[in-house]
Automatic annotation (TrEMBL):
Transmembrane is among the record's keywords: no
Function comment: Catalyzes the condensation of (S)-aspartate-beta-semialdehyde [(S)-ASA] and pyruvate to 4-hydroxy-tetrahydrodipicolinate (HTPA).
EC number(s) recorded for this UniProt protein: 4.3.3.7
Pathway: Amino-acid biosynthesis; L-lysine biosynthesis via DAP pathway; (S)-tetrahydrodipicolinate from L-aspartate: step 3/4
Name of the protein described by the UniProt record: 4-hydroxy-tetrahydrodipicolinate synthase
Organism for this UniProt entry: Streptomyces luteoverticillatus
Binding site for pyruvate: T52, V208
GO-annotated cellular components: cytosol
One MF term in the entry's GO annotations: 4-hydroxy-tetrahydrodipicolinate synthase activity
Location of the active site: Y140, K168
InterPro entries, A to Z: Aldolase_TIM, DapA, DapA-like, Schiff_base-form_aldolases_AS, Schiff_base-form_aldolases_CS
Catalytic activity line of the entry: L-aspartate 4-semialdehyde + pyruvate = (2S,4S)-4-hydroxy-2,3,4,5-tetrahydrodipicolinate + H2O + H(+)
Amino acid sequence: MSTTTEPFGRTVCAMVTPFTADGALDLDGAQRLAGHLVTEGGCDGLVLSGTTGESPTTTDAEKTALVTAVAEAVGDRARITAGVGSADTRHTVELARAAERAGAHGVLVVTPYYSRPPQEDIAEHFRTVADAVGVPVMLYDIPGRTGTRIEPDTMLRLAEHPRIAGVKDCAYDLLGSSKVIAATGLAYYSGCEELSLPLRAVGGTGYVSTVANVAGPALAAVLDAFDRGENAEATRLHQRVLPLVEQMMGAGLPGTVTAKALLGALGLPAGPVRAPLRAATQERTEALLEAYEEATGADGR
């Protein structure tokens, strides 16, 4: 039973966290960027304080303030999902409850990292967080960063929880994802832009994208064409955006760095990255701009 619901949106941006020139949280910039992404950027959902949002280097208070500010800026025009993952179940519960109080429509919970717990411990971690809040939970499966996969069989068990509603899928296992989509009502979101179209084709809901910070309409156009039954056009649009995806996500720099470089070059709120990350060079920024222009065209499509 594949889902037709979109509990976290469909075209979702993993939004950067804007900072001021001196590295402080820029709430005004966050509100302006969120408004742009929803109004002009093709996004019906925003994920805050994820990997792209530099969650490892923002404080709990900053994370909560960010949710409050963005919720105020976009209201009900987009679904706001707050990243609340940590390596500590108790801390994750505290972050999830704070995000819900601040106005988040859902929470994103990553697999506990570094300690590499076994599958049943991972499942109990997610259930504990889901039991603690009244909003939908999106599981974040990214073993390349956490060191541990949420195995498909574990996903099948977790899907029985009434508030575990979706998955941000960065496992690079289309077979496993297809199995879970076919057997559950979990809303699957591609966390890897190159797989957004393939995942949609096997019943996925949409994407959670770093590239959407700068090219949301181009990414949304791929799914729109597919949903209209225009498969050849969807493939063409998908192929058109791939060089930008590669420049931003697969050429040696973290997506946070490349997204902020492009946003800054385009005159949109972003600011610096926090250490240990470092800004992209001017040469790299120029290459990103070239790929951006080729992917989006004059009309943003």
